[in-house]
Amino acid sequence: LPTVWGGTSLCGMNADQVPDAVARRFRASSGEGLVIIGLQQSVYDEAASLRIWGLCDDVMQLVAKELRCKVPDSKVAKRGAEWEARHPRLTYNTPQRSSRDPM
């Protein structure tokens, strides 16, 4: 399966080693390739086997629907709620965006 990478600008941090290694393996015909999902251009766009311009949440919802996966999985949702209950100071300050209003 290809490596799907989304939700980051891929701009020089240590995490860039993952897409870089996947792209190199694909070029050497020993990997399945790199899929990038996001709104920003990245240095790996040309190396990606598939580049999807969009919000990660929107794209992954469509993928889950196509694969007939139940999202959110009830076990995962329960574990997330338990984690949030154990961390009362947790806040999410990231504004919710839509594909019609990405920025």
Would you kindly provide a written description of the structure presented here, covering whatever features stand out?
- The chain is of the alpha/beta class.
- 34% of the residues lie in helices and 13% in strands.
- Strands 1-2-3 form a 3-stranded parallel β-sheet.
- Strand 1, helix 1 (17-27) and strand 2 (34-38) form a beta-alpha-beta unit.
- It is globular.
List the helices and strands and how they pair.
Elements (H helix, E strand, L loop, with lengths): L2 E4 L10 H11 L6 E5 L11 E4 L2 H11 L7 H13 L17
Task: Give a nutshell description of this structure.
The chain is an alpha/beta fold.
First CA to last CA: what distance?
31 Å
Report the total helices: 3
Q: What's the total number of strands? A: 3
Structural class: alpha/beta
Strand content: 5-15%
Which percent range fits the helix content? 25-40%
SSE sequence, one letter per element: EHEEHH
Kindly report the average pLDDT value.
79
